[in-house]
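Why should sequence recovery work at all? Because a backbone constrains its sequence more than one might expect. Tight turns favour small or flexible residues, buried strands favour hydrophobic ones, and helices have their own preferences. The token representation captures these environments compactly. In the example below, the structure is given first.
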């Protein structure tokens, strides 16, 4: 079968971003404030990815979610939008400075009551969480060398058929650059290879933004 993909130009990408239902002025305002921070604003997820995550949370009926890496709160706001009124998202981050921006916008968007922000090392937070009730959805977008550690802690707290989303799995193309040997690049490569062969889950990598892998936890007895 021949390769089947469309190379995105800037104009085609802008067209793609515009063809979405989710229109949230609070998200747009948050994106603008984050962009003003300069180069670090690249840590924010893309708008089409945020819309996809909202839709995905709604589609699987997620009620409990966890996020590792919150920054200024765009992704958390998107996930919280997809949860029901009594849903809960645990958001893990180490920065009081960036999450102070997040708190303002969560309040403005009317989702603050759904988000439980935990400031501190995410591994400590995750390890302190009970296995029950389990999570339905998880999003990981933090320090790359710990991605595998986050995965193991979340997976044991995820319900069967629950989803884990990993951001930046293409790592701006560096996953294929043999000259890139820094710790983050090597960690992403190792995770990608591991997930593709982990019998506990099924995984698919999508070319959304900087690459997004979706992992589904297999039900008992379903292991390949």
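From this structural description, the recovered sequence reads:
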């Amino acid at each position: 079968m021949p390769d089947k993909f469309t190379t995105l130009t800037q104009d085609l990408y802008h067209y793609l971003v515009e063809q979405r239902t989710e229109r949230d002025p609070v998200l747009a305002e948050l994106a603008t404030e984050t962009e003003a921070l300069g180069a670090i604003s690249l840590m924010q997820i893309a708008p089409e990815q945020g819309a996809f995550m909202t839709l995905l949370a709604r589609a699987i009926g997620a009620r409990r979610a966890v996020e590792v890496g919150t920054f200024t709160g765009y992704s958390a706001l998107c996930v919280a939008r997809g949860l029901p009124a009594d849903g809960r998202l645990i958001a893990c981050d180490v920065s009081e400075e960036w999450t102070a921006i997040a708190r303002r916008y969560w309040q403005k968007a009317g989702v603050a009551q759904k988000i439980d922000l935990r400031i501190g090392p995410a591994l400590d937070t995750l390890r302190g969480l009970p296995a029950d009730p389990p999570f339905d959805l998880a999003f990981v977008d933090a320090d790359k060398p710990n991605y595998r550690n986050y995965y193991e802690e979340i997976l044991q707290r995820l319900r069967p058929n629950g989803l884990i989303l990993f951001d930046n799995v293409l790592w701006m193309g560096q996953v294929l650059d043999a000259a890139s040997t820094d710790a983050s690049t090597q960690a992403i490569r190792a995770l990608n290879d591991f997930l593709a062969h982990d019998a506990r889950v099924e995984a698919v990598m999508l070319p959304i933004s900087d690459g997004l892998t979706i992992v589904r936890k297999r039900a008992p007895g379903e292991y390949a």
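A few observations help interpret the result. The two ends are 25 Å apart (CA to CA).
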